[in-house]
Amino acid sequence: MQGLVLIKAVPKMGHLSRSANFNDAKESLMREAFLMSQFKHPNVVKFHGICYDVPTISIVMEQCTGGSLDAHLRQWECKITVGERILYGLETAKGMRYLQEKELIHRDLATRNCLISKYGIIKISDFGLSQLATDHIDNLTKQRVTNVSILFSHF
């Protein structure tokens, strides 16, 4: 691993670290780290590893020094050419196509979650709300089965 990295962490919260909210946040970050570890594509933020230092858990990932696409568009809106805008859209689409091929549903694609690398390349990030399509189908099936069970229980 060379260069700068970004660390995303669940902060230490003292005695609150055993609370349900903290445990949910840790579980969510672990899940996000697992998902990120599955993907390697030029338009997806690179996962480097995870650091688990009780009670803090951190994801170590590629740092995109250009910041978010959202901030970039706001700062330079009048100076960004049509060609650059098309390139941003194309790179985002390439990343999303790759994630679709890997059967990932991002569920939070927005310019704030598209980062710009030091080379100006758009990288999709923030997989906290993401779900594998197979998990999504399983959840829908469970939900339907539960709803049907409830419906029949009233007879």
TrEMBL record:
GO-annotated cellular components: plasma membrane; receptor complex
Transmembrane segments: none
Gene Ontology biological process terms from the UniProt entry: cell surface receptor protein tyrosine kinase signaling pathway; regulation of neuron differentiation
Record key words, sorted: Kinase, Serine/threonine-protein kinase, Transferase
PANTHER family tied to this protein: RECEPTOR PROTEIN-TYROSINE KINASE, TYROSINE-PROTEIN KINASE RECEPTOR
Record domain Protein kinase: where: 1-155
Pfam families: PK_Tyr_Ser-Thr
PROSITE patterns per the UniProt record, alphabetical: PROTEIN_KINASE_DOM (PS50011), PROTEIN_KINASE_TYR (PS00109)
InterPro entries according to UniProt: Kinase-like_dom_sf, Prot_kinase_dom, RTK, Ser-Thr/Tyr_kinase_cat_dom, Tyr_kinase_AS, Tyr_kinase_cat_dom
Organism: Loa loa
Domain of life where this protein originates: Eukaryota
Name by which UniProt lists this protein: Serine/threonine protein kinase
Single GO MF descriptor: ATP binding
